[in-house]
Amino acid sequence: MLRLTSPIRTSSTLSAALTTKRSVHFAGYGGRTEVTLIPGDGIGNAAAQSVKSIFKAQNVPVDFDEIHVTGLGKSQEPPKEYFEAIKSLKRTKVGLKGIIYTPVTAHGHPSFNVQLRKDLDVFAAVSLYRSLPGVNTRHKDVDFVIVRENTEGEYSGLETRPVPGVVESLKITSESVVERLARFAYDFAKANGLGSVTAVHKANIMKKGDGLFKNTIARVGEELYPEISSNSVIVDNCAMQVVSNSQQYKVLVTPNLYGNILSNIGAGLVGGPGVVPGVSIGREYAVFEPGCRHVGLSLTDKGTANPTATILSSVMMLRHIGLDRDAEAIARAVYTTLAEQKVATPDIGGTSTTVEFTNEVIRKLETVQ
Amino acid sequence: MRGIGAQFRNIVRRYSIASYTGKQNANGKFTVPIIEGDGIGPEISAAVKKIFGAANAPIEWVPVDVTPSIVDGVQVFPKRTVDLINEHKVALKGPLATPIGKGHVSLNLTLRRTFNLFANVRPCKSIEGYNTAYSGVNTVLIRENTEGEYSGIEHAISPGVIQSIKLITAKASERVCEYAFNYANEIGKKKVLVVHKASVMKLGDGLFVSSAEKIAKKFPNIELCYELIDNTCLKMVQDPSYYEDFVMVMPNLYGDIMSDLCSGLIGGLGLTPSGNMGIDVSIFEAVHGSAPDIAGKNMANPTALLLSSVMMLRYMNLPEYADKIEKAVLETLASGKDNITKDLKGNATTEKFTSEVISRL
């Protein structure tokens, strides 16, 4: 029971084609839907504000339960707002989220983003890479999707130090996790008319772990999705192909770390993390967040953040909760604004502020039909 | 006497690991074992030999065979090959075909283990005459080559659940970082960039980072910088010129991916040289495949092996020959479609390309 995308959709915000509509009851009443909003650190507040303004202008029937979770504190444990956010998400089933800061040092706290994805078991991260009109890049006609395993792999967080000067980091690959990821990836490809799924792996070296990943993706494709072509590519070759000929790929399905690497390469092709929308999705919950997860700490409160990734993620979210008309209107307004190149943020070569960009999108909501 | 010699050697080694210690033979030439490889290997090796001959480079080639055998369950190379390479401290290697997914250890991996090749050096420079979406790329990447994700330690902890171990040791991390700093000194770069993912692998990648910090104290003239692999990937495809000032150094898997990514920026593996550096022995190789489909058809592009052999000459302290050959190769590549091979959208044969290089020496 997959929900197909609306025929008028603009494919940069492919419907995540996700959960069965029957099984998920969204929160809210009176025809309005409640959504958990976690702005995050860095550019998060500015981007969230932009979405709120646009939703208000469009009269989108969505109410936000806004909770500020920050990773800037010193504690190893998540702040109490984190648990509020989880509670809220368990109620609403849908979230719009920015990125929470993670320190790089060995003593810093672990990533609360990763913990949230694990706590909610949102096992698949979908991110969309598509050349946008008006955003000038070296590469033209980029259009592919990464479906990244989101809960285990190199991000297991299991590390041991058997003797000083030696560290073992465990990468966990389990068949059940890969299998549901595979089913999701094929479902996504099917629902959005993308005819091929490519498994990214390093099975020539990690013969068991990545071998299991590769073989499971192939087996699910063969058994359940004969109409979708299934192939595989070694991760280093994939990185090279993506920067020279990305058009050969439709849906890349990857273990956690390779997904992280390829999502950054992909973002580089289409104009940076500011324009890549995404979602982390599981059986029950869907957390819409920028596809290329950069916190943008240096841009905090500078007023120049590009809210496009968050706006387009919110558009994906609107499709998810069945508000296709609003989704389409907002997507169209964003694309028109970008294509005109009159109002653009510095990351894509403009000089405008976040607020100016947002206001231009709102103006387009009224004028572009 | 011997004791003093060994002690002296240790001091030298401590300050410049992976430096060439081969000796000239009676004719005043250096002997270099060459592994011609499979597929197009023999053709491109022939091209290299011909060009070296024409350039009067003081190199005597000895072809060696790397057909492996299994001894006590371990894949080993013929004794003569191992002895020759150990004796002459250096080798040049064409592409080897590794059967995929049949449980074989790849020959490349066996080579790395046999000769303790701990660092892989991959410079990438835009080639004039072959246009890609990028111009002015000039990166140097050094990859840890012995452990990390490639430790090969994997278990099924319960049915359907695999645990793969990424092994990071201070010893190997310090060794590769020290090599990177030395290399930066040698080629005149002022910064070393450690690429890592210590935000997630706090202990493992954290150890790599702290090893680099420790080594950096010995090199006060070189700045140590850090970057998350996320940012490196992103910036590398947006504006690779940023990385011109750096020597990048990173754990095994990241190095594998990033080095191929950099190659992709300038036109693929057919244009990029590679050196595998060990404590005593270093092996320079073309990292592209053996292309069995065009083998023997006089179509192969010897550029990668040529540029690798140029790296080898520099390593052997023969820079004048290195410069001469490199200049001729680059000029040939820039000289138009008639002189370059089909993979670069030209229409020259391997032989034609080779003679064009020779005419420019």
UniProtKB/TrEMBL annotation, chain A:
Signal peptide: none annotated. It catalyses: D-threo-isocitrate + NAD(+) = 2-oxoglutarate + CO2 + NADH. One of its GO terms (molecular function) is isocitrate dehydrogenase (NAD+) activity. Its EC number is 1.1.1.41. Keywords: Magnesium, Metal-binding, Mitochondrion, Transit peptide, Tricarboxylic acid cycle. Residues 34-361 form the Isopropylmalate dehydrogenase-like domain. One of its GO terms (cellular component) is mitochondrion. It is found in: Mitochondrion. It holds the Pfam family Iso_dh. It is an enzyme of class 1 (oxidoreductase). GO terms for biological process: isocitrate metabolic process; tricarboxylic acid cycle. PROSITE patterns: IDH_IMDH (PS00470). Octamer of two non-identical subunits IDH1 and IDH2. Belongs to the isocitrate and isopropylmalate dehydrogenases family. This is Isocitrate dehydrogenase [NAD] subunit 1, mitochondrial. The lineage of its organism: Eukaryota, Fungi, Dikarya, Ascomycota, Saccharomycotina.
TrEMBL record, chain B:
PROSITE patterns: IDH_IMDH. Keywords: Magnesium, Metal-binding, NAD, Oxidoreductase, Transit peptide. It comes from the Eukaryota. GO terms for molecular function: isocitrate dehydrogenase (NAD+) activity; magnesium ion binding; NAD binding. Its cofactor is Mn(2+); Mg(2+). Its EC number is 1.1.1.41. The keyword Acetylation does not apply. It catalyses: D-threo-isocitrate + NAD(+) = 2-oxoglutarate + CO2 + NADH. One of its GO terms (biological process) is isocitrate metabolic process. The keyword Magnesium applies. Gene3D superfamilies: Isopropylmalate Dehydrogenase (3.40.718.10). InterPro entries: IsoCit/isopropylmalate_DH_CS, Isocitrate_DH_NAD, IsoPropMal-DH-like_dom. SUPFAM superfamilies: Isocitrate/Isopropylmalate dehydrogenase-like. Pfam families: Iso_dh. Residues 31-357 form the Isopropylmalate dehydrogenase-like domain. One of its GO terms (cellular component) is mitochondrion. Belongs to the isocitrate and isopropylmalate dehydrogenases family. NCBIfam families: mito_nad_idh. Octamer of two non-identical subunits IDH1 and IDH2. This is Isocitrate dehydrogenase [NAD] subunit 2, mitochondrial. It comes from Starmerella bacillaris.
